[in-house]
Design the sequence.
């Protein structure tokens, strides 16, 4: 299964191409947590995760059960401190 | 016919583009002149916010910052000039703002914000605008604003991205999104990783718009929503947020009931 991934701010570098955008190949039954683990994104930086533009609940139980679908767009926007 | 409500001739001209707007008018301009807004930080975000609020005639602008102007600031901190290098930011900011609009009273708070002084500082203001540059200060400002029920106009930036929201005690706060600060070192600072110089101009201007809307009671405030901005794609998106009943500070059974200085936790002190 292929999903599109968009990572922002300091997470951009975690995509293999370094620009924070791309398509990843995952197992067909992959969950949101599987994807976040594959990208090495800790929970502290992934509270603001969107699937197809919809904000995902931050609870780990929900994310562990959330099966991704072919073509999903997963965006992760970490907290920003700068001013 | 524009009522003047005892504006001076100069004020009638200075604010004429507000006075002719039915949504602002003389009553709205009077509200702006009577408003008291506290800016946390006179840096990248605080610069455009302060400049626009000052130009708009927000009558009292408090500025909290204990830093001095450095050459590395000038790529984005448009309150300050090359000749200000080495001066206190509050002094540099006050001079710039006084030059733009002498109607505005600038109150300088040349202090390091902490749990010990934040309450006495924010009590004099109606609205707090968070343009700080670190997590310890953001949590301190958030918690204090929730505790005294003052709106917190939030903005934050990094590299090409920005966030903005208006947090209120009853519609969700920063901790509803991010319950605790990330561990030390997990999120680099702008000093460590960089920030596009124009970026704070956009996000800080959004904070200024939201502040003026709150003062005037106009439109829909950015409460219950988090605005996410990506300059590279020039994409603005909004995420709905709501007060989390389990939030440690604004929830039904808060566990954070006293202000916390997170410097030990985050590795850097709360510096603005």
Sequence:
């Amino acid at each position: 299964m292929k999903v599109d991934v968009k990572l922002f701010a300091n997470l951009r570098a975690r995509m293999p191409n370094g620009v924070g955008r791309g398509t990843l190949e995952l197992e067909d039954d992959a969950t949101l947590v599987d994807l976040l683990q594959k990208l090495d994104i800790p929970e502290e930086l992934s509270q603001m995760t969107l699937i197809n533009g919809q904000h995902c609940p931050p609870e780990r139980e929900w994310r562990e059960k959330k099966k991704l679908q072919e073509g999903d767009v997963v965006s992760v926007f970490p907290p920003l401190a700068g001013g | 016919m524009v009522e003047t409500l005892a504006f001076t001739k100069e004020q009638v001209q200075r604010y004429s583009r507000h006075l002719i707007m039915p949504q602002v008018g003389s009553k709205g301009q009077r509200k702006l002149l009577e408003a008291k807004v506290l800016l946390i930080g006179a840096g990248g975000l605080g610069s455009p916010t302060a400049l626009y609020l000052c130009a708009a005639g927000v009558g009292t602008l408090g500025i909290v910052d204990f830093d001095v102007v450095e050459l590395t600031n000038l790529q984005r901190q448009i309150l300050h000039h090359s000749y200000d290098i080495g001066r206190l930011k509050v002094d540099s900011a006050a001079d710039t703002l006084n030059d733009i609009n002498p109607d505005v009273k600038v109150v300088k708070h040349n202090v390091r914000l902490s749990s010990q002084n934040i309450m006495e500082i924010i009590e004099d203001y109606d609205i707090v605008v968070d343009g700080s540059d670190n997590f310890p200060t953001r949590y301190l400002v958030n918690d204090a604003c929730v505790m005294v029920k003052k709106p917190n106009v939030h903005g934050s930036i990094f590299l090409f991205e920005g966030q903005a929201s208006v947090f209120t005690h009853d519609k969700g706060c920063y901790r509803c999104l991010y319950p605790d600060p990330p561990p030390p070192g997990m999120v680099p600072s702008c000093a460590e990783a960089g920030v596009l110089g124009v970026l704070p101009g956009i996000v800080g201007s959004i904070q200024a718009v939201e502040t003026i809307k709150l003062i005037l009671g106009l439109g829909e405030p950015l409460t219950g929503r988090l605005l996410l901005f990506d300059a590279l794609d020039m994409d603005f998106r909004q995420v709905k947020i709501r007060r989390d009943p389990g939030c440690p500070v604004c929830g039904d059974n808060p566990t954070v009931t006293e202000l916390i200085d997170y410097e030990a936790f985050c590795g850097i002190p709360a510096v603005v």
User: Anything to note?
Assistant: The radius of gyration of chain B is 18 Å. The mean pLDDT of chain B is 94. The CA atoms of residues 68 and 87 of chain B lie 5 Å apart. Chain B touches chain A at residues 41, 43-46, 130-135, 138, 155-163, 177-178, 180, 182-183, 186-190, 193, 195, 200, 226, 228, 230, 237, 239-241, 272 (CB under 8 Å).
